[in-house]
Request: fold
Amino acid sequence: MLNTKLGSLPPLGKFLDPVNGFWQNAESSDIQASQHVKPKGLKQNVEVRYDQHLIPHIFARNTSDLNLVSGYITAYHRLWQMEFQTHDAAGRLSEIVGEVTLNRDRAKRRQGMVTAAKFTLEEWEKDPEIMEAINAYTIGVNDYIHSLRYRDLPIEYKLLNYQPEPWTKLKCSLLLKYMAAMLTLSESDIENTNAVKLFGIEQFNTLFPEFPDGIDPVMPSGTQWDFKSVEVKKPVDFDSLPWVKTRAYPHPPKMLGSNNWAVSGQKTKSGNPMLANDMHLGLNLPCIWFQMQYNTPDINVFGHTIPGVPMIVTGFNDSIAWGFTNAYRDLVDWYKIKFRDDSRNEYLFDGKWLATNKIVEEIKIRDKASFYDTIVYTHHGPIVYDQNFSKDGEKLNLAMKWVAQNATSEPIAFINMSKAHNYKEFSQAIKDFECPPQNMAFACVDGDIALNIQGKYPVKWPGQGKFILDGLRKDHEWQGYIPVEQNPHILNPERGFVSSANQIPADQLYPYYAYTNFFENNRNRRINHVLRAKNDITKQDMMDLQNDVYSLRAEDILPFMLEKVDHTSSDQSVQDILTTLQNWNYEFQYSEKAPSYFTIWWETLYNSIWDEFNTDSIALDKPNRYNTIRLLKTSKDSPFIDIRETPEKETATDLVNASFIKTLDQIKAWENSHSEEITWQFYKNTSINHFMPSLSSFSYENLAIGGNGTTPNAATGRWGPSQRLIVDLGTPIRAWSTYPGGQSGNPGNKHYDHFIPSWTKGEYFPVLFMHHPDEAKDKIIFRQHFESTL
Reply:
């Protein structure tokens, strides 16, 4: 009985076994790996040095051995994370955790994740350099897996009672599709279609403007473009398309984003270019990133890897540094499909009946029979919404066209970025980077700084993809892709810096249609304001800006709210709240109450303005908060400045006061239900959770970190800076880093959460960037020798 899984419990006999069970996952030293390893397939000896932060520095004589050892080492530290994420990407979580993840798995299958990963792997197989890396990495991962006994398994395998399976090349491809899905599935086509049908196109354009006032694009406003753009024809008419009541899967969080910038030597105290990067993703344990240094006769590069992919994603080498932020654009479109009959064997397009392709997906469910889902593919893409999947049984038949369904070659871009020595080589390397598109900041020891918006973007007519498209019509198809050299880019701008924070790429002078509802409008303005004003910039200035908690949203709207609210209350607690807000400097410091008061009040006011959007009958997105502020301050006659449920026509003053009264009740209710004061730390509750939410003992809550989604330090409840890196491109190159976690994936190792205290405080560690395995001996805690058996 003790060796049988009972409900959610693991087999207790094996799990509690002091020789083989969870006790073996408690590591008393920094690392308990063997110092001498003989992996199969290694051509020459490889030396690995671990520094005091458990960062491996790999010294190999060829790239094949480098990637083999990288795979072995990454699996040693992060095997469970690597495999769990590929199971998630492939829609296979139900095999591990049961029926609770069935709908998540079905959504992944219907997005065509595995099919897209297979297409991509077929493309990789045409490139010997990619395949050398992927093959060697896979051999290294599997060599480690094959060495494992039950006692050696990561604790998550023991808790969930399953075994790791062999690593495959397809899993490497799946991990990149996993990241692409996280960063490119943001779209509002369905919600926009419903809003137009509900409010009309004129009102829609007022509520959802594409170029709102006051924006600060990635490319400086007024940038001229000296190329002839691809012509695109817009259809004369646009047919009315259906209401959609529900989404087949939720939006990715809008908190996903990042900051990066580079400043030229003319603005730094040292005269050296400097680069800063912090990518905002889910705050998870183990951390999304794994830091490594790769050294061969051809490269010497330090940076962040995705566990499961054998390349440095962002970082620096002896000559250059680079960092990414997500370059939002509408990369997913929905097409309404008309089938010939209920068999769904044929669909109508451009006056012809075309054959569909059907794939029956078997989703295995732990302790239950498999679930089978038939997915119909069209040339647009898979049918995601149909009578078999959408919750309310609508016969929508919406096909999903997504850039990431195409084969892409990001690995060769990563390889060539690591080798680049200047901007010319870097800009050539990134041409192979297609999805997810990124704002790529660059700095070089020769003095150059640059920013390229790089990715595969469809050429669209204005408005295309903003709404559901008609799958019958050829003129609703994508008409090609923007030539890579016509993606926005800038080199050595006069202002002395480049920056991005997920805002709109360029102003209206850029000749291509660039749309999404997810452009950011606060962090980027704050960063640019600080960089414009500062000269003699130091590394501390760069760190301070990454940790900046000043909110332009609060600055934009709180004075207006305070002006409109009634200050005559005789209640001292009410006066205390108003005084706290009046004296606030708009900084989201974790120890203060004002950020909590403001957030509750503003969100209550925001939701009262858009009460017309509070409906379960159709899918709707509310207008973004940036435009809401401008509407509230300037449009006195807007029909939305009203409370729908009352017969009176309210004014902005009425809404501000009504929302303040509700805010007082919410503050009181929160204080009555919590033992802590309502400071921003406890109200926001920044948490770093284990990938398995049920494993709360491996997680952290109520971290003492400021900021919110509108500040450069964009730490929210569950999302925020997943890494921070500062690089000074002097001689020698110096760098500083931190991230919310640690190198080890084992909760029983002290390096599992090693960096969390310094990350919350805005502290960094100097990066050890080595050139030879025998240097910096005082900073090395573990030496590992990989011996060739050939």
In short: The domain at 32-548+745-751+782-790 is CATH 3.60.20.10 (Glutamine Phosphoribosylpyrophosphate, subunit 1, domain 1). The two ends are 47 Å apart (CA to CA). The CA atoms of residues 113 and 585 lie 46 Å apart.
